[in-house]
Design brief:
Elements: H1 11-23, H2 28-34, H3 41-53, E1 57-62, E2 65-70, H4 74-90, H5 94-102, H6 111-128
Antiparallel strand pairs: 1-2
Helix pairs in contact: 2-3
Length: 129
């Protein structure tokens, strides 16, 4: 696991990672273009350097520019983010998180989505036996 991969990322660092996962690779200027309410170019570069130090991204030199690429696979990043969210908002309880997701005032799930969720629960039960 990359160094400090479990350390939480700031909101802006998460936004940068979202841009890099969506684009696959990008220069600091391209990242800046895709950020909401973007900070200055030097701030984006500083955040990218910090993400490198945290083991989240690496850079490749293409001529005079650095192109940044995520190191942590998206699936692993999703699991880490979900684990962090469960601890932060639901006391580590998956049951409480699912209950919140199923709250009809929050999510308007179709019958098909509910059927897929039920199938995932059935599959998890079978795998635990």
């Amino acid at each position: 696991m990359p160094r400090d991969a479990e350390r939480g990322l700031s909101r802006r660092e998460r936004q940068i990672m979202h841009v890099l996962y969506r684009l696959g690779r990008a220069t600091a200027a391209v990242v800046q273009e895709h950020l909401p309410d973007p900070p200055g170019y030097s701030a984006v570069r500083a955040l990218l350097r910090l993400l490198e130090e945290k083991g989240q991204v690496r850079h490749e030199e293409e001529g005079p520019r650095y192109v940044y690429v995520p190191i942590v696979p998206l699936a692993k990043a999703k699991k880490s983010a979900l684990r962090h969210m469960l601890q932060t908002f639901f006391g580590g309880s998956a049951e409480k998180a699912v209950a919140a997701l199923l709250d009809s005032s929050v999510a308007h799930l179709s019958d098909e989505e509910l059927d897929r969720i039920a199938a995932l629960i059935d599959q998890a039960r079978k795998e635990e036996r």
